[in-house]
Amino acid sequence: MPRKIILDCDPGHDDAIAMLLAHGSSEIDLLAVTTVAGNQTLAKVTRNALGVAAVAGMRGVTIAAGCDRPFVRPFIGAAQIHGESGLGGVELPDPAGLPEAGIGLDPRHGVDVIIETVMAHEVGEITLVPIGPLTNIAMAARKEPRIVERVREVVLMGGGVHKGNRTPTAEFNILADPESAHVVFDAGWPVTMVGLDLTHQALATEEVCARIGEIGGPVAELVLAGVSSYGAAYRETGRFDHPPLHDPCAVAYVVDRAVMTTRRAPVSVELTGTHTLGMTVADLRDEAPADCRTQVALELDVDRFWDLVVEALAALGDGDGQVGEAGR
């Protein structure tokens, strides 16, 4: 049976592709998309989620806006990578036409959507896939602690075992709201951390883009327009010739466990370090204790991963919307 998931995100170029992978995969039943302030403000990432849903014909999926700021710290954003819109380089459908296309925003708060969806299903049915800052997930666990024992697992994109990106030691999603990350890692549910050690292997090379281009249609055009802008931003940093697509990796793990190698390890989030705030500290010194509920992703089967992405995009076909180039 397809795995029922809630995708919590902050679109974001790679979030958009994660949405498309989740919607296009026959192995996933995408119940809801909840948004959180992260790559851009809540208003902008929610607008992007609705636009991507329209292009992909994502009807029947609940879309709800969640938290507009971290628990404690000020919003930091990632406009330098994702542009002022959050989806630099991509022109999405006119918001005015979305209701007519069957795409609308649920009036409930995203945190309540998470809680109500988990509580309405049997124990172990729902997988949470947060690929932005963890504010919504932490808030849901605090507001309704019973969801912790009901969720099958949390598969998150964030952190890193040996590296950071926003700082030398911290990955953006964790640094954006480290207190929420602490809550999520310590809640007691199974957590798989798909961090930078893994996602930096998922590079959108010319060969990958050529495969996507062969699909044709608005969905593929959205992906290629986004990758073009996203890749240019990464090249400006001098760190990557081809952009790493972080967020689809977490969704890919839900689709196919064999796409990556993981290792069980205790993970803690640094909350007070002067130079290490937001660092995910994974203890790999020894075999994990028997009660360890966290694991970290380390090695990606790159070909298998891109096969999953391309197959999902091809399954979406022409979608229902139009997409084009826009300035960053």
From TrEMBL:
Gene3D superfamilies xref list: Ribonucleoside hydrolase-like
InterPro entries (alphabetical): I/U_nuclsd_hydro_CS, Inosine/uridine_hydrolase_dom, IUNH, Ribo_hydro-like
- Name the UniProt key words of this record, in alphabetical order: Glycosidase, Hydrolase
Provide an example Pfam family for this protein. Answer: IU_nuc_hydro
Which CDD domains does the UniProt entry name for this protein? Answer: nuc_hydro_IU_UC_XIUA
This protein's source sits in the domain of life called: Bacteria
Query: Domain named Inosine/uridine-preferring nucleoside hydrolase: which ranges?
Result: 5-307
Q: Which PANTHER family does the UniProt entry name for this protein?
A: INOSINE-URIDINE PREFERRING NUCLEOSIDE HYDROLASE, URIDINE NUCLEOSIDASE
- According to UniProt, the name of this protein is Ribosylpyrimidine nucleosidase
Q: State the organism named in the record.
A: Mobilicoccus caccae
UniProt lineage: Bacteria, Bacillati, Actinomycetota, Actinomycetes, Micrococcales
